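Severity: low
Component: inverse-folding endpoint
Summary: output formatting inconsistent between runs
Steps to reproduce: submit the following structure tokens with default settings.
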């Protein structure tokens, strides 16, 4: 008995054939393109976009007075990000400034005392000269009366009176010398005191500079142009010095891609090679890049516990070599690439190398 096919069956058969033909053609085109890409490119999808993401760290502790940014906000170099209560730091600065003023006043007092003692020493030195002249004159007088006494032309009382006057003049001369020596010694003592005060003044000035730095640290500013990341602080929160308060993505440096190629793919890669980059988020947009460095070791060698193949359970695994690729182009065009995005990287196999 013959099996009859209806018109509907024939139409379904034709449509199925056309669909199968189109699928075969599409698969053929996809296979040819894939094989061609494998032939002319070394490629990997084990690659991510990288930028410098730095923490914003407080160098002074205290209460947060104000937060001047929001997450994902663009900031410029020098923009104020946070304000920390600075009253304790300004009080310490004022105390140090007062101590500096006190030390400077002490120096002025010592300078005044030095001038006074210098005048006293000058007067004592003049007194020495006068007393010396009186002793010299009285010594001549005593010698003359001694000769007269020997010739019995003067009495012993006269000689004793002249001798007592000579003894008084000698005492005054010695006293003038002692006064001058004391004044000079006091001047030397004051100079030593000045040295101590000046050393303390130098210490206080250094301490003042430190307090000024502490006051400046209470204003946290952006170190460069960038975009703020996650924010972890609010006004009124108590923070410690060295605490991470937020993150900022640096817009002043290049973006780059770290592509982990198999060790069998890097034989002909060189610094300066042109690179094609396609992000998973923008599959229809090509980005250009340049190889700027190849890692000196495999990724596993930098791990916390690098493999030890001498333990006897060795299994050969193809290793990955991190390749750093700078993303080329105008900043506003490549800003769509965010840190951590997955990308596919294609490096032509045949490039001119010197």
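Observed output (run 2 of 3):
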């Amino acid at each position: 008995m013959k099996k009859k096919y209806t018109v509907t069956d024939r139409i379904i058969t034709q449509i199925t054939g056309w669909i199968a033909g189109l699928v075969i053609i599409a698969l053929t085109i996809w296979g040819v393109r894939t094989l061609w890409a494998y032939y002319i490119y070394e490629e990997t999808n084990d690659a991510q976009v990288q930028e410098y993401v730095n923490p914003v760290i407080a160098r002074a502790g205290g209460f947060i007075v104000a937060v001047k940014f929001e997450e994902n906000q663009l900031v410029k170099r020098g923009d104020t990000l946070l304000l920390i209560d600075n009253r304790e730091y300004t009080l310490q600065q004022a105390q140090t400034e007062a101590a500096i003023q006190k030390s400077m006043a002490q120096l002025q007092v010592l300078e005044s005392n030095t001038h006074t003692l210098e005048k006293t020493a000058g007067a004592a030195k003049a007194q020495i000269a006068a007393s010396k002249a009186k002793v010299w004159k009285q010594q001549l007088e005593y010698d003359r009366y001694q000769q007269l006494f020997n010739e019995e032309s003067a009495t012993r009382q006269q000689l004793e009176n002249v001798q007592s006057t000579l003894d008084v003049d000698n005492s005054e001369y010695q006293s003038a010398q002692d006064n001058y020596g004391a004044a000079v010694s006091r001047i030397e003592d004051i100079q030593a005191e000045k040295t101590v005060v000046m050393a303390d003044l130098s210490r206080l000035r250094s301490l003042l500079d430190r307090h000024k730095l502490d006051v400046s640290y209470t204003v946290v500013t952006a170190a460069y142009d960038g975009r703020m990341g996650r924010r972890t602080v609010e006004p009124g929160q108590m923070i410690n010095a060295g605490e991470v308060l937020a993150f900022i993505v640096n817009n002043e440096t290049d973006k780059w891609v770290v592509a982990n190629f198999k060790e069998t793919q890097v034989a002909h890669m060189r610094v300066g090679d042109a690179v094609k980059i396609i992000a998973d988020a923008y599959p229809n947009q090509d980005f250009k890049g340049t190889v700027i460095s190849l890692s000196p070791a495999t990724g596993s060698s930098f791990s916390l516990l690098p493999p030890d193949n001498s333990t006897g359970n060795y299994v050969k695994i193809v290793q990955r070599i991190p390749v750093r690729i700078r993303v080329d182009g105008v900043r506003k065009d490549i800003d769509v690439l965010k840190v951590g995005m997955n990308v596919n990287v294609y490096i032509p196999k045949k490039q001119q190398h010197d």
